[in-house]
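At this stage, I put together a protein sequence along with its fold in token form, as given directly below:
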Amino acid sequence: MSQSSLNHNALSNQIAERISEQIISGELKPGEKIVENVYATEYGTSRAPVREAIYLLTIEGLVERIPRKGAIVKEHTENEINDLLEVRIMLEALAMKRIQEKGVDHKILNEMEALYEKMISEKDTTHYTELNHAFHLSLINMSKSETIKKMYSRLELPLLRVQNISFGGEGNIKKSVREHKILVDLLNENKVEEAAEILQQHNYDVISSIQSQLFDNQIQYKEKEG
């Protein structure tokens, strides 16, 4: 591969990361059009790397192309969100089963404790969402299963977007911090089965929170329309 091709790919990835950050944080709203010229100007480039970035985000499930309209931020249906979160629950439950079989990796657990310490003081919703994802990803890594890791990695960007909505709810970050502390303590005591139960309830609570917020948003939308 030529140096120019490498530079092109690096720029496309950089632009894709920028757009994904805007989507996850809510700066770009569902259904909002992604204007290629805006990013071409911002990065001082042609539209080609921007189009490549949009293609990458289409694969990741954050963007979709609409005929005669162009690329927009994907609007996930309630069923799609529920499916995403339930797949996450199944993968994390399987990861906990593998941890129970193979034992707790205390090196990874130390990394989780370090993440938890950062989560305690983090007030920014988007940054907290990223720390939370890294914490859960550590559990996936502790499973030592490449299959689970690969499947979980495919959920990353849509999951970050949905979790950012959840943590925007009042009191949800404080609740999350408390529950992550319990998980760390139980794993330190090698009580993996109890940790798995706490984790599952924690994840189902996220679904309930998202459903509640989606319902509230629908009411607000109808009131505006009315």
